[in-house]
């Protein structure tokens, strides 16, 4: 009869906790960039979704179209956030596959 191996379970749990810490560390190290308006607005964001830098093309500012600038900043921030999500999913999937947990 296949009994429950508590030692093996504990080892898997410890490995999962280490993987979670590693993932958090990798996300702190991750930096992405996204732009909108053909590069008129560029956002640099870290893996914790903190905006590190915002660049707005001077010509766009000279246009005086405040509503368009706001829309482009919003789009660039959202695109950078999506890139962070994708990086996290990719990293997490790679880590989970290494755990050897059935169904993962």
List the helices and strands and how they pair.
Layout: H1 6-29, E1 31-36, E2 41-46, E3 51-56, H2 58-63, H3 66-97
Antiparallel strand pairs: 1-2, 2-3
Overall pLDDT score: 87
Shape: rod-shaped
Cα Rg: 21 Å
CATH superfamily of the domain at 26-90: Nucleoid-associated protein YbaB-like domain
The percent range for strand residues is 15-25%
What CATH architecture of the domain at 26-90 would you give?
A: 2-Layer Sandwich
List keywords for this structure.
rod-shaped, 17% strand, single chain, 104 residues, 3 helices, three-stranded antiparallel beta sheet, Ybab, Chain: A, alpha+beta
Outline the structure in words.
The protein is rod-shaped. With 104 residues, the chain is α+β, with helices and mostly antiparallel strands. It has a domain at 26-90: Ybab, Chain: A, CATH 3.30.1310.10. Helix content is 60%, strand content 17%.
In short:
This protein has helices spanning 6-29, 58-63, 66-97; strands at residues 31-36, 41-46, 51-56. With 104 residues, it is α+β, with helices and mostly antiparallel strands.
């Amino acid at each position: 009869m296949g009994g429950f191996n508590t030692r093996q379970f504990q080892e898997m749990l410890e490995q999962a906790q280490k993987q979670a810490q590693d993932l958090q560390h990798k996300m702190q190290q991750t930096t992405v960039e996204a732009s909108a308006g053909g590069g008129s607005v560029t956002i640099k964001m870290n893996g914790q979704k903190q905006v590190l830098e915002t660049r707005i093309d001077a010509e766009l500012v000279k246009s005086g179209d405040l509503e368009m600038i706001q829309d482009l900043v919003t789009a660039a921030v959202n695109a950078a956030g999506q890139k962070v999500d994708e990086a996290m999913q990719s990293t997490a999937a790679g880590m989970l596959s290494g755990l050897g947990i059935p169904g993962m």
